[in-house]
Amino acid sequence: MILDAWQEVLQTLSRNRLRTLLTALSVAWGVFMLVTLLGVSSGIRNSIADQFKDDAINSIWLYPGQTSRPYKGFSVGRQLRFTNADFTLLRESVPGVERLTGRFYLWGDFTIRRGPHAGAFSVRSCHPDHRYIEKTLMRSGRFLNDFDMTNRRKVTVIGIRVAEQLFPDRDPLTGPIGEQIIVNEIAYTVVGVYEDAGGEGEMRQIYIPITTAQTAYGGGDTIHQLMFTVADASVEESQAIAEVVRRRLAERHRFDPDDPRALRVRNNLERFQEIEQIFTWLEGFTWLMGLGTVAAGLVGVSNITLISVAERRREIGLRKALGATPWAIIGQILAEAVILTATSGYVGLIGGVGVIEGLRAFVPENEYILNPELALQPALITAGVLVAAGVIAGYIPARSAASVPPAVALQDG
After folding, report:
1. For the segment 125-173, what is each residue's pLDDT rounded down to a tens digit?
2. Which helix H or strand E contains 166, and what residues bound it?
3. What is the pTM of this model?
4. Rg, the chain, Cα only
5. Can you tell me whether residue 163 is helix, strand or coil?
6. CA distance 413 to 397
7. How far apart (Å, rounded) are the C-alpha atoms in residues 143 and 145?
8. What are 335-349's pLDDT values in tens digits?
9. SS3 sequence, 242-294?
10. Could you say which DSSP state residue 118 is in?
11. Residue 59 CA: distances (Å) to CA of 103, 126, 342, 344
12. DSSP 8-state symbol, 373
Protein backbone atom coordinates (compact mmCIF):
# COMPACT_ATOMS: atom_id res chain seq x y z
CA MET A 1 0.00 0.00 0.00
CA ILE A 2 2.76 2.44 0.94
CA LEU A 3 4.77 1.54 -2.18
CA ASP A 4 1.70 2.07 -4.36
CA ALA A 5 1.09 5.45 -2.75
CA TRP A 6 4.68 6.57 -3.40
CA GLN A 7 4.56 5.39 -6.99
CA GLU A 8 1.35 7.32 -7.50
CA VAL A 9 2.89 10.49 -6.06
CA LEU A 10 5.92 10.23 -8.35
CA GLN A 11 3.73 9.56 -11.39
CA THR A 12 1.66 12.65 -10.61
CA LEU A 13 4.77 14.83 -10.37
CA SER A 14 6.18 13.43 -13.61
CA ARG A 15 3.04 14.10 -15.70
CA ASN A 16 4.19 17.64 -16.38
CA ARG A 17 7.95 17.43 -16.07
CA LEU A 18 8.75 20.95 -17.24
CA ARG A 19 6.36 22.54 -14.75
CA THR A 20 7.66 20.36 -11.93
CA LEU A 21 11.29 21.06 -12.89
CA LEU A 22 10.84 24.84 -12.98
CA THR A 23 9.06 24.84 -9.62
CA ALA A 24 11.77 22.65 -8.10
CA LEU A 25 14.46 24.97 -9.45
CA SER A 26 12.84 27.99 -7.82
CA VAL A 27 12.83 26.27 -4.41
CA ALA A 28 16.36 24.93 -4.88
CA TRP A 29 17.61 28.39 -5.83
CA GLY A 30 16.06 29.93 -2.73
CA VAL A 31 17.67 27.37 -0.44
CA PHE A 32 20.98 27.67 -2.29
CA MET A 33 20.98 31.45 -1.78
CA LEU A 34 20.05 31.12 1.90
CA VAL A 35 22.78 28.57 2.64
CA THR A 36 25.41 30.48 0.66
CA LEU A 37 24.56 33.78 2.37
CA LEU A 38 24.70 32.13 5.81
CA GLY A 39 28.09 30.59 4.98
CA VAL A 40 29.58 33.84 3.71
CA SER A 41 28.14 35.67 6.72
CA SER A 42 29.87 33.20 9.05
CA GLY A 43 33.13 33.73 7.15
CA ILE A 44 32.90 37.50 7.64
CA ARG A 45 32.09 36.98 11.33
CA ASN A 46 35.09 34.67 11.71
CA SER A 47 37.32 37.24 10.01
CA ILE A 48 36.26 39.99 12.41
CA ALA A 49 36.64 37.68 15.42
CA ASP A 50 40.11 36.74 14.17
CA GLN A 51 41.14 40.39 14.44
CA PHE A 52 40.41 40.22 18.18
CA LYS A 53 42.29 36.99 18.84
CA ASP A 54 45.59 38.78 19.37
CA ASP A 55 44.30 40.95 22.23
CA ALA A 56 42.24 40.31 25.34
CA ILE A 57 38.64 41.22 24.51
CA ASN A 58 38.13 42.55 28.04
CA SER A 59 40.97 45.06 27.68
CA ILE A 60 40.91 48.86 27.64
CA TRP A 61 43.68 50.84 25.96
CA LEU A 62 44.53 54.44 26.83
CA TYR A 63 46.35 56.92 24.60
CA PRO A 64 47.34 60.44 25.71
CA GLY A 65 46.09 63.19 23.42
CA GLN A 66 45.97 66.96 23.18
CA THR A 67 43.50 69.11 25.06
CA SER A 68 40.81 70.82 23.00
CA ARG A 69 39.09 72.71 25.82
CA PRO A 70 40.42 75.27 28.32
CA TYR A 71 40.32 74.05 31.90
CA LYS A 72 40.99 75.85 35.20
CA GLY A 73 43.31 78.40 33.62
CA PHE A 74 45.11 75.92 31.35
CA SER A 75 45.06 76.73 27.65
CA VAL A 76 43.94 74.59 24.74
CA GLY A 77 46.49 72.45 22.92
CA ARG A 78 48.40 70.95 25.87
CA GLN A 79 49.95 67.58 25.05
CA LEU A 80 49.34 64.95 27.71
CA ARG A 81 52.16 62.64 28.76
CA PHE A 82 51.73 59.45 30.72
CA THR A 83 54.37 58.63 33.33
CA ASN A 84 55.20 55.84 35.73
CA ALA A 85 53.08 57.68 38.32
CA ASP A 86 49.99 57.14 36.12
CA PHE A 87 50.72 53.42 36.03
CA THR A 88 50.93 53.39 39.85
CA LEU A 89 47.73 55.46 40.09
CA LEU A 90 45.70 52.94 38.06
CA ARG A 91 47.17 49.92 39.81
CA GLU A 92 46.59 51.20 43.33
CA SER A 93 43.49 53.38 43.22
CA VAL A 94 41.10 52.18 40.51
CA PRO A 95 38.85 49.22 41.48
CA GLY A 96 38.18 46.77 38.67
CA VAL A 97 41.59 47.05 37.00
CA GLU A 98 42.92 43.48 36.77
CA ARG A 99 45.99 43.17 34.53
CA LEU A 100 47.88 46.40 33.82
CA THR A 101 50.79 47.28 31.56
CA GLY A 102 52.37 50.30 29.99
CA ARG A 103 54.31 50.63 26.76
CA PHE A 104 57.28 52.80 25.99
CA TYR A 105 57.54 52.97 22.20
CA LEU A 106 60.82 52.19 20.47
CA TRP A 107 60.10 53.35 16.95
CA GLY A 108 60.97 51.32 13.86
CA ASP A 109 62.77 48.01 13.42
CA PHE A 110 65.98 47.37 15.33
CA THR A 111 68.91 45.43 13.94
CA ILE A 112 69.33 42.54 16.34
CA ARG A 113 72.39 40.35 16.23
CA ARG A 114 73.65 37.13 17.67
CA GLY A 115 77.12 36.31 16.40
CA PRO A 116 77.04 36.18 12.59
CA HIS A 117 73.25 36.07 12.49
CA ALA A 118 71.16 39.25 12.35
CA GLY A 119 67.70 40.50 11.50
CA ALA A 120 65.42 43.51 11.72
CA PHE A 121 62.77 43.05 14.40
CA SER A 122 60.46 45.26 16.44
CA VAL A 123 61.20 45.86 20.12
CA ARG A 124 58.40 46.28 22.67
CA SER A 125 59.03 47.51 26.17
CA CYS A 126 56.32 46.70 28.68
CA HIS A 127 55.34 45.39 32.12
CA PRO A 128 54.87 41.70 33.06
CA ASP A 129 51.06 41.76 32.68
CA HIS A 130 51.48 42.57 28.98
CA ARG A 131 51.56 38.86 28.18
CA TYR A 132 47.92 38.45 29.29
CA ILE A 133 46.67 41.41 27.28
CA GLU A 134 48.49 40.43 24.07
CA LYS A 135 47.83 36.70 24.59
CA THR A 136 51.53 35.85 24.54
CA LEU A 137 52.01 32.07 24.82
CA MET A 138 55.28 31.08 26.47
CA ARG A 139 56.87 28.06 24.82
CA SER A 140 60.04 27.96 26.92
CA GLY A 141 61.63 29.93 29.72
CA ARG A 142 59.60 32.76 31.27
CA PHE A 143 58.17 36.17 30.56
CA LEU A 144 59.34 39.42 32.13
CA ASN A 145 58.75 39.73 35.89
CA ASP A 146 58.68 42.39 38.61
CA PHE A 147 62.31 41.72 39.56
CA ASP A 148 63.32 42.63 36.00
CA MET A 149 61.38 45.89 36.32
CA THR A 150 62.74 46.91 39.70
CA ASN A 151 66.36 46.25 38.77
CA ARG A 152 66.12 47.44 35.16
CA ARG A 153 67.62 44.15 34.02
CA LYS A 154 68.80 43.71 30.45
CA VAL A 155 66.72 40.64 29.71
CA THR A 156 64.47 39.86 26.77
CA VAL A 157 61.75 37.48 25.63
CA ILE A 158 61.87 36.74 21.93
CA GLY A 159 59.31 35.47 19.42
CA ILE A 160 59.84 32.05 17.92
CA ARG A 161 60.49 33.53 14.47
CA VAL A 162 63.25 35.65 15.98
CA ALA A 163 64.69 32.55 17.61
CA GLU A 164 64.63 30.62 14.33
CA GLN A 165 66.51 33.39 12.52
CA LEU A 166 69.08 34.22 15.20
CA PHE A 167 69.65 30.64 16.37
CA PRO A 168 69.43 28.53 13.19
CA ASP A 169 71.96 26.05 14.58
CA ARG A 170 69.94 25.28 17.72
CA ASP A 171 66.53 24.20 18.88
CA PRO A 172 64.51 27.45 18.60
CA LEU A 173 62.68 26.74 21.86
CA THR A 174 65.50 25.79 24.22
CA GLY A 175 68.65 26.95 22.44
CA PRO A 176 68.24 30.72 22.97
CA ILE A 177 67.58 30.51 26.75
CA GLY A 178 70.47 32.08 28.66
CA GLU A 179 72.17 33.34 25.49
CA GLN A 180 72.79 36.99 24.66
CA ILE A 181 71.58 39.01 21.70
CA ILE A 182 72.68 42.53 20.76
CA VAL A 183 69.99 45.20 20.41
CA ASN A 184 71.45 48.51 19.18
CA GLU A 185 74.80 47.69 20.73
CA ILE A 186 73.28 46.70 24.08
CA ALA A 187 73.47 43.05 25.16
CA TYR A 188 70.30 41.40 26.46
CA THR A 189 69.99 37.91 27.94
CA VAL A 190 67.22 35.77 26.49
CA VAL A 191 64.97 34.42 29.27
CA GLY A 192 62.05 33.11 27.21
CA VAL A 193 60.67 32.20 23.80
CA TYR A 194 57.01 32.77 22.95
CA GLU A 195 54.37 32.27 20.32
CA ASP A 196 51.42 34.59 19.76
CA ALA A 197 47.84 34.10 18.61
CA GLY A 198 48.22 37.20 16.46
CA GLY A 199 50.23 35.42 13.78
CA GLU A 200 53.61 35.81 12.12
CA GLY A 201 54.02 39.54 12.69
CA GLU A 202 53.52 39.20 16.42
CA MET A 203 56.10 36.42 16.61
CA ARG A 204 58.78 38.69 15.11
CA GLN A 205 58.89 40.88 18.20
CA ILE A 206 61.15 40.96 21.22
CA TYR A 207 60.06 42.18 24.66
CA ILE A 208 62.23 44.05 27.15
CA PRO A 209 61.39 45.59 30.56
CA ILE A 210 59.86 49.05 30.20
CA THR A 211 62.08 50.41 32.97
CA THR A 212 65.16 49.18 31.10
CA ALA A 213 63.99 50.84 27.88
CA GLN A 214 63.23 54.12 29.65
CA THR A 215 66.76 54.16 31.07
CA ALA A 216 68.68 52.85 28.06
CA TYR A 217 66.92 54.89 25.40
CA GLY A 218 66.39 58.22 27.14
CA GLY A 219 62.75 57.86 28.03
CA GLY A 220 62.92 59.09 31.61
CA ASP A 221 59.62 58.10 33.22
CA THR A 222 57.55 58.43 30.04
CA ILE A 223 54.90 55.86 29.14
CA HIS A 224 53.32 56.17 25.70
CA GLN A 225 50.34 53.89 26.25
CA LEU A 226 48.51 52.22 29.14
CA MET A 227 46.52 48.99 28.80
CA PHE A 228 44.52 47.02 31.35
CA THR A 229 41.89 44.30 31.60
CA VAL A 230 38.64 44.37 33.58
CA ALA A 231 38.31 40.66 34.47
CA ASP A 232 34.74 39.37 33.88
CA ALA A 233 33.10 42.78 33.83
CA SER A 234 30.13 43.40 31.55
CA VAL A 235 30.23 46.08 28.90
CA GLU A 236 28.42 48.50 31.21
CA GLU A 237 30.82 47.74 34.07
CA SER A 238 33.84 48.19 31.79
CA GLN A 239 32.46 51.56 30.67
CA ALA A 240 32.08 52.59 34.31
CA ILE A 241 35.67 51.57 35.08
CA ALA A 242 36.92 53.46 32.02
CA GLU A 243 35.04 56.54 33.19
CA VAL A 244 36.66 56.32 36.64
CA VAL A 245 40.07 56.03 34.97
CA ARG A 246 39.34 59.05 32.78
CA ARG A 247 38.38 61.19 35.76
CA ARG A 248 41.36 60.09 37.84
CA LEU A 249 43.73 60.94 35.02
CA ALA A 250 41.87 64.20 34.34
CA GLU A 251 42.33 65.18 37.97
CA ARG A 252 46.01 64.32 37.91
CA HIS A 253 46.81 65.99 34.56
CA ARG A 254 44.30 68.83 35.01
CA PHE A 255 42.22 68.53 31.88
CA ASP A 256 38.45 68.58 31.37
CA PRO A 257 37.24 64.96 31.92
CA ASP A 258 34.67 65.52 29.16
CA ASP A 259 37.34 66.63 26.67
CA PRO A 260 37.20 63.90 23.97
CA ARG A 261 40.64 64.70 22.56
CA ALA A 262 42.64 64.89 25.75
CA LEU A 263 42.46 61.14 26.38
CA ARG A 264 41.54 58.48 23.85
CA VAL A 265 39.98 55.36 25.32
CA ARG A 266 39.62 52.16 23.31
CA ASN A 267 37.29 49.72 25.04
CA ASN A 268 37.73 46.41 23.23
CA LEU A 269 34.81 44.82 25.06
CA GLU A 270 32.55 47.62 23.88
CA ARG A 271 33.84 47.37 20.32
CA PHE A 272 33.37 43.60 20.31
CA GLN A 273 29.77 43.93 21.49
CA GLU A 274 29.05 46.53 18.80
CA ILE A 275 30.42 44.22 16.13
CA GLU A 276 28.42 41.30 17.55
CA GLN A 277 25.26 43.41 17.32
CA ILE A 278 26.05 44.30 13.72
CA PHE A 279 26.45 40.63 12.85
CA THR A 280 23.25 39.73 14.67
CA TRP A 281 21.43 42.21 12.43
CA LEU A 282 23.34 40.96 9.38
CA GLU A 283 22.42 37.36 10.16
CA GLY A 284 18.78 38.36 10.63
CA PHE A 285 18.84 40.21 7.31
CA THR A 286 20.42 37.16 5.66
CA TRP A 287 17.64 34.92 6.98
CA LEU A 288 15.03 37.43 5.84
CA MET A 289 16.45 37.62 2.31
CA GLY A 290 17.00 33.87 2.06
CA LEU A 291 13.59 32.92 3.42
CA GLY A 292 12.01 35.50 1.12
CA THR A 293 13.61 33.75 -1.83
CA VAL A 294 12.50 30.36 -0.50
CA ALA A 295 8.96 31.74 -0.03
CA ALA A 296 8.89 32.79 -3.67
CA GLY A 297 9.68 29.19 -4.62
CA LEU A 298 7.01 27.87 -2.25
CA VAL A 299 4.44 30.07 -3.96
CA GLY A 300 5.34 28.15 -7.08
CA VAL A 301 4.81 24.87 -5.22
CA SER A 302 1.39 26.06 -4.06
CA ASN A 303 0.48 27.12 -7.61
CA ILE A 304 1.57 23.85 -9.17
CA THR A 305 -0.45 22.00 -6.53
CA LEU A 306 -3.50 24.10 -7.32
CA ILE A 307 -3.13 23.37 -11.02
CA SER A 308 -2.62 19.67 -10.31
CA VAL A 309 -5.75 19.57 -8.15
CA ALA A 310 -7.79 21.37 -10.83
CA GLU A 311 -6.65 18.86 -13.45
CA ARG A 312 -7.52 15.89 -11.25
CA ARG A 313 -10.95 16.88 -9.96
CA ARG A 314 -12.66 13.95 -11.70
CA GLU A 315 -10.02 11.57 -10.28
CA ILE A 316 -10.49 13.00 -6.79
CA GLY A 317 -14.29 12.77 -7.14
CA LEU A 318 -14.01 9.11 -8.20
CA ARG A 319 -11.78 8.35 -5.21
CA LYS A 320 -14.26 9.92 -2.84
CA ALA A 321 -17.13 8.05 -4.50
CA LEU A 322 -15.23 4.79 -3.92
CA GLY A 323 -14.83 5.59 -0.24
CA ALA A 324 -11.63 7.62 0.07
CA THR A 325 -11.74 9.85 3.15
CA PRO A 326 -10.96 13.59 2.97
CA TRP A 327 -7.76 13.03 4.96
CA ALA A 328 -6.64 10.38 2.47
CA ILE A 329 -7.05 12.92 -0.34
CA ILE A 330 -5.29 15.61 1.69
CA GLY A 331 -2.48 13.22 2.63
CA GLN A 332 -1.70 12.32 -0.97
CA ILE A 333 -1.61 15.93 -2.16
CA LEU A 334 0.48 16.97 0.85
CA ALA A 335 2.92 14.15 0.08
CA GLU A 336 3.36 15.49 -3.44
CA ALA A 337 4.06 19.03 -2.14
CA VAL A 338 6.43 17.86 0.59
CA ILE A 339 8.37 15.55 -1.73
CA LEU A 340 8.78 18.30 -4.32
CA THR A 341 9.82 20.85 -1.69
CA ALA A 342 12.14 18.58 0.29
CA THR A 343 13.88 17.13 -2.77
CA SER A 344 14.50 20.46 -4.46
CA GLY A 345 15.47 22.01 -1.10
CA TYR A 346 17.97 19.24 -0.50
CA VAL A 347 19.53 19.89 -3.91
CA GLY A 348 19.82 23.59 -3.07
CA LEU A 349 21.31 22.73 0.34
CA ILE A 350 23.94 20.48 -1.22
CA GLY A 351 24.76 23.16 -3.81
CA GLY A 352 25.17 25.82 -1.12
CA VAL A 353 27.38 23.59 1.02
CA GLY A 354 29.44 22.84 -2.09
CA VAL A 355 30.01 26.55 -2.69
CA ILE A 356 31.02 27.09 0.96
CA GLU A 357 33.45 24.16 0.86
CA GLY A 358 34.83 25.51 -2.41
CA LEU A 359 35.49 28.87 -0.76
CA ARG A 360 37.27 27.13 2.12
CA ALA A 361 39.39 24.99 -0.19
CA PHE A 362 40.29 27.29 -3.07
CA VAL A 363 40.01 30.92 -1.97
CA PRO A 364 43.35 32.14 -0.57
CA GLU A 365 43.41 33.22 3.08
CA ASN A 366 42.34 36.84 3.34
CA GLU A 367 41.13 39.37 5.89
CA TYR A 368 37.56 39.56 4.57
CA ILE A 369 36.23 35.98 4.64
CA LEU A 370 37.80 33.42 6.97
CA ASN A 371 36.72 29.76 7.20
CA PRO A 372 33.13 30.13 5.95
CA GLU A 373 30.95 27.34 7.27
CA LEU A 374 27.35 26.25 7.70
CA ALA A 375 26.68 25.29 11.30
CA LEU A 376 24.48 22.31 12.10
CA GLN A 377 21.73 24.39 13.70
CA PRO A 378 21.03 26.61 10.64
CA ALA A 379 21.06 23.50 8.43
CA LEU A 380 18.50 21.77 10.66
CA ILE A 381 16.40 24.92 10.81
CA THR A 382 16.47 25.17 7.02
CA ALA A 383 15.38 21.53 6.67
CA GLY A 384 12.58 22.03 9.20
CA VAL A 385 11.41 25.21 7.49
CA LEU A 386 11.31 23.41 4.15
CA VAL A 387 9.20 20.53 5.42
CA ALA A 388 6.81 22.87 7.25
CA ALA A 389 6.59 25.15 4.21
CA GLY A 390 5.88 22.17 1.96
CA VAL A 391 2.97 21.18 4.21
CA ILE A 392 1.61 24.74 4.23
CA ALA A 393 2.04 25.10 0.47
CA GLY A 394 0.09 21.91 -0.21
CA TYR A 395 -2.51 22.05 2.55
CA ILE A 396 -4.77 24.80 1.15
CA PRO A 397 -5.14 23.21 -2.32
CA ALA A 398 -5.51 19.79 -0.69
CA ARG A 399 -8.20 21.02 1.69
CA SER A 400 -10.04 22.63 -1.21
CA ALA A 401 -9.93 19.41 -3.21
CA ALA A 402 -11.13 17.28 -0.31
CA SER A 403 -14.14 19.55 0.30
CA VAL A 404 -15.58 19.19 -3.22
CA PRO A 405 -18.61 16.79 -3.30
CA PRO A 406 -17.98 13.67 -5.46
CA ALA A 407 -20.98 14.41 -7.74
CA VAL A 408 -19.67 17.88 -8.53
CA ALA A 409 -16.13 16.65 -9.09
CA LEU A 410 -17.29 13.88 -11.47
CA GLN A 411 -19.18 16.40 -13.60
CA ASP A 412 -15.95 18.36 -14.37
CA GLY A 413 -14.03 17.68 -17.55
Report:
1. 999 999 999 889 999 999 999 999 999 999 999 999 999 999 998 999 9
2. helix 160-166
3. 0.69
4. 34
5. helix
6. 18
7. 6
8. 777 777 778 878 888
9. HHHHHHHHHHHHCCCCCCCCCEEEEEHHHHHHHHHHHHHHHHHHHHHHHHHHH
10. E
11. 14, 15, 48, 48
12. -
